[in-house]
Design brief:
This protein is an alpha/beta fold and 427 residues long. The strands form three sheets. The chain has a five-stranded mixed beta sheet, with helices on both faces. The chain has a five-stranded parallel beta sheet with strand order 10-9-8-11-12, with helices on both faces. The chain has a two-stranded antiparallel sheet with strand order 3-7. The longest helix has 17 residues. It has three domains: 134 residues, no CATH class; 76 residues, no CATH class; 194 residues, no CATH class. The termini are far apart. Helix 7 crosses helix 11. Helix content is 38%, strand content 12%. 30% of the residues are buried.
């Protein structure tokens, strides 16, 4: 029996032993002491406490799960200096794998114990048995939660997109496609998150509403350029908002207008009284669903008042469009009555001399020309506001930034009275 001074020496010997019989078995990569193919292998020069080493590998699998990766169905612990291997089934530790761990995988493992017994193998005497174990191609399914939802979406889009042809985009995938995957998994090794789309919306708004902005594929994210707003920025913005509210005359009404509210992250720390003055709008169906269910009985108005679950974007309700900004009966005639009433209500606030307007939003940033230069088949969106912005003798460079359109339109169309405020949060 050979005695190895380092794990690396033993790992090389282990793989040389196996590959002399079957060269198709993948070799160790990156000089790591844990190797993932279809089996997670953890090497030690000697294993005195199996539970301790097993828990270390469980932490590795937990990290893999959080990164949206497939979870191997087997764990193989290899004690090199006594030529022993201990085989466990990963599914037996699903609860532990789906637990979030803070410290290094190799630390604080002494207290873990399990009654589950391993299959013990002398790997030098049973090389064929080890090879058959390593040929296993099965993975276990995992549950979806706040710890892995974002990386699962990234993995999903990588599978269904040809990322090698990034400059030849055929389609930009929206999170509604990902919702279908959560209901009926075809590409990911996950248990169904919900029975139907409606249940996905209900569960996600309770479990991870702050992550919804992150679930589009990277191309659509860049086109919308709307991302999650961290809590420290939200808290600071809330402080500034309250300064603005304190300056409003006591005899006046006021509204807090957020035209790009997403899932309402910016409103998370507002009091019920402050929320009762909010007028919120968003442009994506899933985000609208979260926003609506989260705030419908708390805020003054949500625009639009309803959406079609079949569309990925809230079509026709771009905050930079003509009918959103201008109350024109003939222009919005084709729209439903509830939509007309919604826009009229907003315009009534704007035109009321006794109602102050506070613009409180985190506008999406995008250098539109730079994005279009790289992606010739994506044309810059010529919104009503952009056309008017160009007419107002602004310079060409300013037209490139989508956030400029929000800022300019706020001053142009909403902030027309004394004691008016605009808070623009830049990340």
């Amino acid at each position: 029996m050979e005695i190895f001074k380092t794990e690396m020496e033993g790992q090389i010997d282990f793989y040389n032993l196996i590959r002399r019989i079957d060269w198709t078995i993948p070799t160790i990569e990156d000089n790591t002491d844990w190797v993932v193919r279809w089996t997670l292998i953890e090497f030690k020069t000697s294993i005195s406490d199996i539970n301790k080493v097993l828990f270390q590998t469980i932490k590795y699998l937990s990290r893999m799960r959080n990164l949206g990766k497939k979870i191997p169905s087997q764990i193989l612990l290899v004690s090199l200096n006594n030529e022993k291997a201990y085989l466990f089934e990963s599914i037996n530790f699903l609860t532990e794998i789906e637990t979030q761990y803070i410290w290094w995988a190799s630390k604080n493992n002494n207290d873990f114990s399990t009654n589950i017994k391993s299959q013990n193998i002398n790997y030098k005497e049973n090389v064929i048995e080890i090879i058959n174990i390593l040929k296993n191609e099965e993975f276990i399914k995992v549950n979806v939660d706040k710890n892995n939802i974002v990386w699962l979406s990234k993995t999903y889009y990588e599978i269904i997109n040809d990322w090698s042809q990034e400059m030849k985009i055929e389609k930009k995938y929206h999170k509604l496609e990902f919702v279908n995957e959560l209901v009926n998994p075809n590409y990911l090794n996950i248990f169904p998150y919900s029975k139907n789309k409606e249940e996905v919306y209900e569960k996600s708004k309770k479990e991870f509403p702050w992550l919804i902005d992150c679930l589009n594929d990277k191309f659509l994210q860049k086109e919308l350029w709307a991302f999650y707003t961290p809590d420290p920025y939200v808290k600071k913005a809330t402080e500034l908002l309250r300064i603005a509210i304190s300056k409003i005359p006591k005899w006046n009404d006021y509204i807090i207008l957020d035209r790009c509210s997403g899932t309402g992250q910016l409103e998370n720390f507002l009091t019920p009284e402050e929320l009762s003055h909010c007028v919120l709008s968003t442009y994506e169906t899933w985000e609208w669903n979260v926003l609506y269910n989260k705030f419908i009985d708390k805020v003054r108005l949500i625009i639009p008042p309803e959406v079609s679950a079949e569309n990925s974007l809230v079509e026709g309700w771009d905050a930079l469009s003509r009918h959103f900004i201008l109350w024109e009966q003939t222009w919005i005639e084709p729209l439903q009555e509830s939509y007309k009433a919604c826009i009229k209500q907003l315009n009534d606030y704007i035109s009321n001399p006794k109602c102050n307007i506070i613009i409180f939003e985190n506008p999406p940033y995008r250098d539109q020309s730079a994005w279009n230069d790289k992606n010739k088949n994506l044309k810059s969106k010529e919104t009503f506001v952009k056309k008017e912005f160009i007419k107002s003798w602004t310079n060409q460079a300013s037209h490139r930034d989508l956030s400029n359109l929000f800022i300019w339109s706020a001053w142009k169309y909403y902030l027309k009275k004394k004691m008016i405020f605009y808070y623009y949060l830049v990340l």
